[in-house]
Amino acid sequence: MKKTELIAQILKKRSFLCVGLDTDIEKIPAHQQKLPDAVFQFNKNIIDATAAYAVGFKPNTAFYESEGTSGWISLEKTIAYIKKHYPEIMVIADAKRGDIGNTSRRYAKAFFEQLQADAITVAPYMGLDSVQPFLGFENKWVVLLGLTSNSGSADFQQLKLDNGRFLYEEVVSKAISWAGSHQLMFVTGATKPEMIARIRSLAPDYFFLVPGVGAQGGDLNAVAKAGLNSEVGILVNASRSILYASSDIDFAEAAATEAQKLQQEMESILIRKNLLK
Amino acid sequence: MKKTELIAQILKKRSFLCVGLDTDIEKIPAHQQKLPDAVFQFNKNIIDATAAYAVGFKPNTAFYESEGTSGWISLEKTIAYIKKHYPEIMVIADAKRGDIGNTSRRYAKAFFEQLQADAITVAPYMGLDSVQPFLGFENKWVVLLGLTSNSGSADFQQLKLDNGRFLYEEVVSKAISWAGSHQLMFVTGATKPEMIARIRSLAPDYFFLVPGVGAQGGDLNAVAKAGLNSEVGILVNASRSILYASSDIDFAEAAATEAQKLQQEMESILIRKNLLK
Questions:
Q1: Of the N and C termini of chain B, which has fewer Cβ atoms inside 10 Å?
Q2: Any idea what the CATH number is for the domain that residue B239 is in?
Q3: Interfacial B residues in 124-183 facing A (CB < 8 Å)
């Protein structure tokens, strides 16, 4: 997916929502749990219910791997379903991969070629040659961890280096010399809007993927204030608050309602910021 | 696996070798490529050929994921084969995972419960709550990235913090307050023995998993000098130099010869250091 296509879709849908597919088989409504490939069936319902409000879907690989081979099959089917029915929506494999070059090349093959994802989240700790193999695919994206939404982000990401920068700032500064904003984004956790603003000043034209709104307590308005740029430049992810909006037979409608609510909040923010009329 | 069992096995086999199962279907000997589930068949041959010299097997998940569902099945079968026939050998899933708590819990389930690995490599960037869920399993291990063997380790790991420590030293210092040496190890790349020595001084009684000997150019003697402690305390991994020692019909024998050569070098090191008679 090209950056221009992503922006066009945001403006068309009046939304910068990404729906996280962290599908937990134990949280799927009871009546669906008995279906064959319940995870895929649930995802299909969620995707159909929320596609009108979302510009991205973000399957979290851990929730599939933990079900073994059948989980991997659900993941393959989920991405194939999105690519077939909603090819305009960005699929971000939330996989947090990263290893030495010959291994990262394999992960890139797994996610970009085998699974046909548009983007993958990558951990920066191993540096340039662990990230580079993911950058060799046209119209595919790396979403590098900058600042994450969890409390552990204080342990290393927020440490100060002897050059005066925080580690997360150094990661962003270095990474923007590795790749342009047409193929690199950053994860910037919703729970720290003041740090999102610092990252925005370092990387003015890059997209940020912002998790942590919803179940993790991040505030959409604060995130937008800190992160928006003239091309919108943020994708805000919500997972649990949409997927499990209801645990009953109406779960898909409840998910649609929740996604629409976020879309409407986003729309008013975009209008307020003169990014939409 | 308990630490005492790991040490007992090292002393019994007179070896601290870990064989990396980075099985690349394109590098498997031609006559084997046609077999159904060629990757598993190749692994089985390598495992049988090298088990006498190895105390660990380390499947690298990228090489399996890149083959899609069939790759995941090969990975499951490979680990199950090791656990059945060589239960005394440690299985380290080289997966470099790490995410927010609810997601790391899923990865722990995937690798410790579904796949039955004894250990998993974990990336530290997201801090304590991303590592903690892996620590809740009895006799299972976290192998945290400290200092990796690749050139990109200079980008962030080797940056100096304003407290005077390098980032990799901070990772090790913090992590040893999170877990004891009975369930936590560190990855310390073979290509930087002087830094392995610094990590050893910070974490005297922890095991180190040392990749980078062989194809990546690390020197076994230098690694041993820097890393050994009174309980041996290091596992040295070799992957490509063993797996692809021959690309012909004799690949398993060639792998055995290569593994035995490393075992013998390790044995003389252990004798020289008075850790064996």
A1: C
A2: 3.20.20.70
A3: 124-131, 145, 148-157, 159-164, 167, 170-171, 174
- Cβ contacts of A78 within 8 Å, gap of 6 or more: A21, A39, A40, A43, A44, A47, A59
Residues 6+ apart with CB under 8 A from A39: A23, A25, A28, A64, A67, A71, A74, A78
Q: Is A100 on the interface with B (CB under 8 A)?
A: yes
Is B251 inside a domain boundary? yes
Contact A125, B150 (CB under 8 A): no
Residue B277 lies in a domain: no
Residues of chain B by 3-state class (helix, strand, coil), percent to 5: 45, 20, 35
> What single-letter amino acid sits at B29?
P
* Domain membership flag for residue A37: yes
In a domain, B101, yes or no: yes
Catalytic hit among B44, B77, B83, B96: B96
**Which residue range is the domain that position B100 belongs to?**
3-272
Q: What's the total number of domains in chain B?
A: 1
What SS3 class is residue B96?
A: strand
CB contact set of B272 (below 8 Å; sequence gap of 6+): none
ipTM: 0.96
- Beta carbon pairs, A and B, within 8 Å: 194
Per-residue pLDDT of chain B (277 residues), as tens digits, is 999 999 999 999 999 999 999 999 899 999 888 888 999 999 999 999 999 999 999 999 999 999 999 999 999 999 999 999 999 999 999 999 999 999 999 999 999 999 999 999 999 999 999 999 999 999 999 999 999 999 999 999 999 999 999 999 999 999 999 999 999 999 999 888 999 999 999 999 999 999 988 777 789 999 999 999 999 999 999 999 999 999 999 999 999 999 999 999 999 999 999 999 9
Residues A231, A237, A241, A244: is their CA dihedral positive or negative? positive
H/E element, A207: strand A207-210
